[in-house]
Amino acid sequence: MSIMDVKFVQGFIRMCNDGWEQGWHERNGGNLSYRMKEEEVEEVKEYLSLDG
């Protein structure tokens, strides 16, 4: 399984694309944030690294 297959990641990708399609985001204009729930962190912790 890839991190791209995780449900909340797919939702975030869709939100980003929807914003672009509706003209809410200018090109290369910044960042979007998402506050992960504890259970979502558990889902993807194998992909996260504490190393800088």
What helical percentage do the residues reach?
Answer: 40-55%
Return the string of H and E elements.
Answer: HH
Uncertain residue segments: none
* Arithmetic mean of pLDDT: 86
Calculate the terminal CA-CA distance, rounded to whole Å: 24 Å
By secondary-structure content and strand pairing, the structural class works out as: mainly alpha
* Rough outline: elongated
Number of helices: 2
- DSSP strand tally: 0
Tell me about the biggest sheet? none
The percent range for strand residues is under 5%
- Rg value: 13 Å
Structural summary, described in words:
The chain has 52 residues and is mostly helical. It is 42% helix and 0% strand. It contains 2 helices and no strands.
Task: Describe the structure using short key phrases.
single chain, mainly alpha, 2 helices
Task: Describe this structure in a few short sentences.
This protein is mainly α and 52 residues long. The protein is built from two helices and no strands. It starts with 6 loop residues before the first helix and ends in an 8-residue tail after the last helix.
Topology, element by element:
Blueprint: H1 7-21, H2 38-44
